[in-house]
Fold:
Amino acid sequence: MPIPTLTDQPPTPRRLLRDVVYDKVFEAIIDGTLELGERLNDDQLVAWLGVSRTPVREAIAKLADQALVDIEANRYTRIVAPSYDEFVDTVRTGYQIWSLVVERGVSALSGAERDEAVAVLDRRLAALAAHEQEAVADIGRLDDLLVEAAGSGTLRRVWATTGPLLQLLFRRAAVAGAFPYDESTTFTTALRDALREGDGERAGELVREQPGRFDGFFAEVRETGIYPA
Structure:
């Protein structure tokens, strides 16, 4: 057998099984494979994922920390099922938190990080033009870049319990036929330009103001009935 050639590249980090399980369940929640309010059964998840009970329980605990799963001891474990008021409050609050991440992070990005973030937003604009949802990996990567650049442990912890739920709520609304494509296109274009210029103050302002443009979107979401009033 030929001996592998050594390189200067660092080895690929080994992922823990609980993280692999988390990713699979998270994607199933986001894409609708697991329905809002659906109960989760350990035995079914173990059979579906082909793993032991421990990584499943660790993944569920993380999802609960992110407010994607509700756990009532000795009663149930289920996917969240927000009300319409909870949906609106999460969107408004989530954008306020994200504005702090963006304002601090944009100004602190390196040149290479800024280029990568701009590329992510360019891909988002292409998806919006096609009335498609951007890739989950892109959302995570942009958040990671900005959170790390912001350099705040507090913001990192708060966003870790807000960002995933915000993503879920928007995804499920889009599946039901409600998504602010026009508002998001205008916003993303302006955010990309502010990011390219390293203008954190402008970028944060754009994020803070965005929910104020969602009145029509909120009305559409209410009409779908996906989040009961």
About this structure: Residues 84-170+177-224 form a domain with the Four Helix Bundle (Hemerythrin (Met), subunit A) fold (CATH 1.20.120.530). Strands lie at 69-72, 76-79.
